[in-house]
Amino acid sequence: MQSVGLPAEPLVVIQPTKRWSLLSFKDIWAYRELLFFLTWRDVKVRYKQTALGAAWAILQPLFMMIIFTIFFGRLAGVGSSGIPYPVFALAGLVPWTFFSNAITASGNSLVGSANLITKVYFPRLIVPTAAMLAGLVDFVLAFILLVLLMLYYQIVPTIQLLFLPVLVLLTALFSLGVGTWFSALNVKYRDVRFALPFLIQLWLFVSSVILPSTAIPLKWRWLLTLNPMSGIIEGYRSALFGLPFDWPALGIASALTILTLVFAIYAFARVERSFADII
Amino acid sequence: MAPIIRVQNLSKQYYLGGPSAAYSTLRESLMDLARKPIRALRKNGSAPQLWALKDVNFEIERGEIVGIIGRNGAGKSTLLKILSRITEPTTGQVELYGRVASLLEVGTGFHPELSGRENIYLNGSILGMTRKEIETKFDEIVAFAEIEKFIDTPVKRYSSGMYVRLAFAVAAHLEPEILVVDEVLAVGDYKFQQKCLSKMHDVATLGRTILFVSHNMGAVSRLCQRTILLDEGRIVKIGPTPEIIQTYTVSNSLGRAEYLQPAAPDKAMHLRRAAILKDGEMRAEVGYHEDFSVHLEYEINRPVSGGNVGIGLFAADGACIFASADFDVHPELLELREPGYYHADIDLPAQWLANGMYVVQVYLSSAAGAVVYDCPEALVFTIVDTGTPGSKYGVKRLGILQPMIEWRTERTNP
Predict the structure, then answer these.
(1) pLDDT in tens, A120-156
(2) Which residue of A15, A48, A190 is in closest CB contact with B113?
(3) Of A209, B67, B292, B345, which is least packed with CB atoms within 10 Å of its CB?
(4) Where are the extended beta strands (E) located within B16-149?
(5) Chain B residue closest to A127 (CA)?
(6) In chain A, which residue's Cα lies nearest the Cα of B104?
(7) What is the pTM of this model?
(8) Domain count, chain A
(9) Within-domain flag for B35
């Protein structure tokens, strides 16, 4: 251990923030290892002391698929763009489950980390981000189930499959935006904890998980495009099953995702410094 | 020499019961919004404010260990939280010429389900260590914590001692230029505490700077050369530790050093004044190493026989430590007290009462007729820990008294 030389300029100047100083991305980069460790912790801890363990990541979408198949596929005879309904539904449920779990986990992450936030400094944005990233492991597991089901139905993917990573990225970014905003809101308004499950339930019905967007009357379909999740989920189906992409819907979804993310980070940064005082 | 920490005009304001005081619900916020116009009309009707820190200025040089003392609510924790960037100041600024690690608690972020090994990595990275640093220090940390055998056991199965040892071991291996430590030494067993203290000392001799907040004057006087005394968010004094502890002990007026009553000629016996005195000076705080006296003044307005003046000393929790009456040593007072104004001093020895708060009850009565004339809880004082045997060695001793008693120990079998 060598003695430490003092820099001429202060390493850190602590001052009241006057404006939102574009959230120190440099700071977040400096703490990237913490982001890794928090994500790793969330992954490791998630299924501790559960009998079924990581199987939960598969069971959730699997049972939803079975239920949807019985009620919507068989009983209601919902159209599914020429794809067998079970695999149609699962292709929507896998990203949907990721999204709903990610925004729940992120939304509650800051409040759940009150102990950390009041004791140690680090860029707070790491907390909801880690909560979202941890969900990706479940997403991959559930995706394996989807691949198996596609094999069973002998659905051969086309070149469009190459678009899949973009869709995963979009899903992750949109989840991050929504989750981050809710996490900041949750610090001040604990209503979020109660509103979120309710909101997710409603959101499911307008996200083209159960029905293809084409089942909605043309007059109302533009409303659906205002929900990025609808465009994204339809995008997954196009990429997986070789159906034609709805480019305008995907474009709007991407634009809205970026808008959501920018807004969420702005809202987050505005209140970030006071978290420790109110949480 | 250039300072490593420069604090300038630092202030921090909290709103009490205001919108940001506690977490609120949306409904409350909407209600607030609805009330706001009315509130604006009322002027000054806004939420009460509290300056947790006000115009704090100081500089700390590299390699110093500086203590921060003060009563609860003096602003110590707020200062630490600002220095460790957990909360931000309302005005003013801090310049830090080095990497800061704060230790406001040991084991921050420990997860009970994870193993010791996993928690070392997690906690280390939360405290700001890089993965490389943790890897190189890993064995040292495990050895320091003395938990080699349990390194792969989930920490929820650890005893509390093991848990704290592991937590502190990680923290002790931080190598920041500035270490900010809150009262974390109050945990763990004596032997381990000594180890931590000497580790902290080593850290400082390597040119690192430590800010140490504590209520334990023993630990502060052992570790710190310089100390900052805070009161109500302001710096009262900065200087050499013994001098600052002295100031703190004397000025801190928690308690009631004096009890005064006007004359009451209609009562046969009447307590006029009671006080805690040290060298003729009134004190509500007395150091463990100081002797002091309880001073009483009372008037006798009619001859009283069978009269009795006594005091009872009670611990803060209400336990009676002793009761004593003047006729114990002066039986003649029991027979007759002539009218007049009396003074009495009861001397209490140094190094006898443990640190803590005490209440003195004064008792004036006629033993014969069982008439109680006066029985106020007249005085409240605190014995300040200026190094009780317990605190010196880092443990809380049992018992209300912490007397220094002579031990005659001989070795008979050489």
Answers:
(1) 888 899 999 999 999 999 999 999 999 999 999 999 8
(2) A48
(3) B345
(4) 49-61, 65-70, 91-96, 100-103
(5) B126
(6) A119
(7) 0.72
(8) 1
(9) no
